[in-house]
Structure formats: C-alpha cells, structure tokens
Amino acid sequence: MSMLENKVCIITGGATGIGKGIATMYAKNGANLVLAARRENLLEEAASELRQYGTKIDFVSTDVTKEQDVKNLFSKTLTEFGKLDILVNNSGVAAGGPVEDIELETWLNVINVNLTGVFLCTREAMRIMKKQKQGRIINIGSISAQMPRMNSAPYTSSKHGLVGLTKSTALEGREYGISAGCLHPGNTESELLLSGIGQNKEPMMSVNEIASAALTMAALPPNANMLEAIVLPVEQKYVGRG
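RESULT FIELD:
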C-alpha cells in the first residue's frame, strides 16, 4: 500500500516550486490532491502532469489572502471528496530591504500571504477536521523563523508568526485528533528563494529533499506529530553563524 493511499490533500501554492514538489511526492504515494494557486494556467499544467501517477488531481484557482476564495477552495474539496485528511500551507512570497525603506504595502502583502493566508486556510481546515475527529496540517516555514537574513524583516516576521500559529493549531487540535507541524526549509532551488537571493553560489538542495520531509510528516501514524523540522544543505552557513 502506498504511504498516502486514499488520503485527500489540499496543497496551496501547489503549481510551482516546493508546492509542486510536495504534490508530486504525494501523488506518487497514492494521495488525491486539490492544488490551489492564483495562476490557473500553471494549475492546469501541474494537474495534467500529476495525473500520470493514477490518483485524482483537482485544482481551484485561489488567492489565499481572499476569504471567499479560501472558503470556495475548501467547499469544492468537500463536495468532490467528502473529507480532508491533509492541508499543506505552502503559498508564500518574499520581499524586504532595510527596515526604514520598506513600504507599508510591501509589509502587508508579505504578512497577508505568508501568515493571514495560512490562518484563513487553517480555519477552514479546522472546521472540517474537528467534525472528522482527524486531520493533519503541515505549514511550510523557513529557517528564517529562527535566524533572519539581512534586510528581510517582512518575511522573517511572517515566518516567526507562522511558528506561533502552528503551535496554537496543534494545541487546539490535539483533543480532536488533529496534528499541526511546521517544516522549515533551508536553501532550496525554488522560484521564491532564487528571486530573493539571486545566483550567489550559496549551497542549495532540490525541492525533492523538502518534499521527502513533507511526505514523512504526512505519513506519520495519527497519534504522532512532527511539530517542527528543519531541512537544509549540509554546507549552508546556518549552524554556528551569527
């Protein structure tokens, strides 16, 4: 039996980068997926590609900062599948600069996508999962939740907040059989990271390494939770820096 056979999973930001990598890993392991992202053309391409693994792949064009979009995503998932086993909150953006130069619009956009969007999706998932008495929520954080890069106040703040939201979710969910965990990637070859740091020859890992960790978290038995996990290149200057 595949590790996620017959599981129903929503993955936000599932059309590209880490989200698509996780979607691929889950589909290979038997999961039925609902991919969510803003760009419908990329969702169509990703869904078409993932259907080769023989599971049901749906997609819903979604802006996670819009409450009605999020409600629609979860409503359509329930209509199609009748349940939700796993939510992967992966949608994210990065922007920054010196604190004194950051526009309020930039700050709010990062917080809205990286934190408020996760809250909106988590809220809908909890409403479903509490009734089911089971479910798992996996939030994609960042090592910036422990150690910031220079000039990254909005992104770093959003990821610190995500850790708090994850722990609050785990606490509120545990009596209902709901787990919540935060997976923190280090340098990963994705559009988001490369757009932020450029080609500066830092050690990198592929999205497959993060996807493998996300699979491990998703496939844990219901009575076990990986509250936080860090996956990063061995040579990345993280441990011991500062």
